[in-house]
Request: fold
Amino acid sequence: MASNVQLMQQLIQVYAELRSAHMGLLRAIVQLRQFIWVYCALSFSSDSSYGSIAHYRSAQTGILRLTFSPYGSVAHYRSAHTAQTGILRLTFSSYGSVAHYRSAHTAQTGILRITFSPYGSFVHYRSAHTAHTGILRLTFKPYGSIAHYRSAQTAQTGILRLTFSPYGSIAHYRSAQTGILRLTFSSYGSIAHYRSAQTAQTGILRLTFSPYGSIAHYRSAQTAHTGILRLTFSSYGSIAHYRSAQTGILRLTFSPYGSVAHYRSAHTAHTGILRLTFKPYGSIAHYRSAQTGILRLTFSSYGSITHYRSAQTAQTGILRLTFSPYGSIAHYRSAQTVKTGILRLTFSPYGSIAHYRSAQTAQTGVLRLTFSPYGSIAHYRSAQTGILRLTFSSYGSIAHYRSAHTAQTGILQLTFSPYGSIAHYRSAQTGILRLTFSPYGSVAHYRSAHTAQTGKLRLTFSSYGSVAHYRSAHTAQTGILRITFSPYGSFVHYRSAHTAHTGILRLTFKPYGSIAHYRSAQTGILRLTFSSYGSITHYRSAQTAQTGILRLTFSPYGSIAHYRSAQTGILRLTFSPYGSIAHYRSAQTVKTGILRLTFSPYGSIAHYRSAQTGILRLTFSPYGSIAHYRSAQTGILRLTFSPYGSIAHYRSAQTAQTGILRLTFSPYGSIAHYRSAQTAQTGILRLTFSPYRSIAHYRSAQTAQTAQTGILQLTFSPYGSIAHYRSAQTAQTGILRLTFSPYGSIAHYRSAQTGIFRLTFSPYGSMAHYRSAQTAHTGILRLTFSPYGSIVHYRSAHTAQTGIFRLTFSSYRSIAHYRAAQTGIFRLTFSPYGSIANYRSAQTGLLRLTFS
Reply:
């Protein structure tokens, strides 16, 4: 310390000598600062040894303070600061290297603080700051590398704080912002953060990443981001976060040993808060766009989470999700125009959760889900104004679907015990639904098309029993129905013609039994549950005005043939493994409801549906084949297929399909999906395919798809191939998301769309994506590809594509991407051991590539 004091005295003496020598004031200041820098470097070397610092700064009137720990090297470059009157403070830990570049700051009057831990490297680039008057703080822990790029900030007046843990790498890009960005990254993980073209971002972004994980954060095109974004990521996991054009607050917390992919874009007025907390050993993919509310997610370790949310013009509420480890979660939410409520989900470990939420025109309530470990959950909710709370125990699976809620202002609470599976469906209700399920049993609860149900529904299911419940055509049941089933027994209950069911329904079912429920020609609900080792043949046709719901659940080792046509309600099928299913549905002129199908593995499914305006959802188990045909539909189609089966889906001549199509396919199966001639498809299409099979999706001749504003999501499992063709969409303004598992090939063709297209592909597969003649493609296209697969993406003749295109590819494959004549942003992230060829011309936006 004494040597430091002596050195300072020497510096002061040198400064006096320089002044006495009639040197210029600026030269004296420069010399003095150089000596002070030497003093700082020496003081750091003495106090925090074994580190080197190189700092260059000119034409700056503010204060810069740097503190670096030992065993690390720092290279900081800053030049051409015309009027930077603020303070920059950097703190770097030992055993790491830091390279900071900053230039062309015309009016940066704020404060920049950076703290770096040892054993990590940091690269920070910042340039062309016209009016950066805020504060930037970075804190990095040891054993990690950080690359931070920032440029073209016209009016960044806020604060940026970054904290990075050791053993990880971070790449952060930010430009043209006026708000605050805070990042905290843990050790042993890599982080890539990209942010650009933020004209007026006045809020705060905070990221916290745990060690042993990699994080890729992309943020761009934020015109009015005035809120706060906070991300916290745990170790041993990878995170990819995308956010653009938001004014609210986003907070993410991710645990170690898991991967997180968060996509958020096109937020015109997002003034709320998004908080995500993810525990280790799980992967998370979160998509959110155009919201003004708050989203909070908490995910436990050992599980994967996929959350999709888009096209929320005025979502001012709160969404909170908590997921436990060892489980996977898929959450989809889109087209929320006025979502002002709160959604909270809590999921336990060892289970998988799929949550889908879309088309919420006025959802002002709260949704809370709590899921225990070792179970899977699929939740769908849309157009609600009430509150939904779900609590699920471990060792069970839960599928919850909720849609078309025009005025649901009540509360739904579900509590599920372990070792059981639960499927819950609810739509268009204003009351409260509570479910409690015991272990070792399966429960399928479906409820929809409740125009004025203001009461409560509570279900409690015991183990070791079988239940068959029939309910149909209840004209005026306003009371309470309670059912209690003992073990080792069977129950058959018939109820029909309920036009105004405003009371309470309680059901208690025990496991290890069979349930058969039939309902037809109604405006209510039909539920079918079939046990194993049996066959079921259900025929239903010529229902011109069936506005209710048909749901089928089939156990394994059985075959099912279901025929239904000319209905306006909702059909849901669930099939067990080792069985075959042939489902035909046609000539539905006024099908405005929802059709959901769930098929177990080891069976084949053929589903045909046409001339409908409602929603179709299919879930197929592995080892089966599926052929689905649908045409002239304006509703929603969702397909979920299990592994070891093949699927052929054909859809054509959709004149007015304004709904949503979702497909989920399990591994070991092949899928062929054909869709053409959609004049007005404004809904959402989501496909999820499992591994070990091939999928071919064709969509063409959509010359008059002028108003397709929905979302298409595809998820394909590994070991399968997917071919998706889509062309001649003049005005598709929605979102298309594809997620493909490894070991498969994908060919996707799409053209003339204005919406958003997202693809996620697993490893060991190939993909060919062709897109051309997009006259007004203003949305976002995101692609994520797993390793061991090849991807070929072609995109050309984009006259006015002003959105964002992001690709993430895993290792061991080759990628060729062609894109021309675009004004948006294109980002690619590729894993190692692969080659990439990118061609882009006549584009005024940004292209960023990050390769693993």
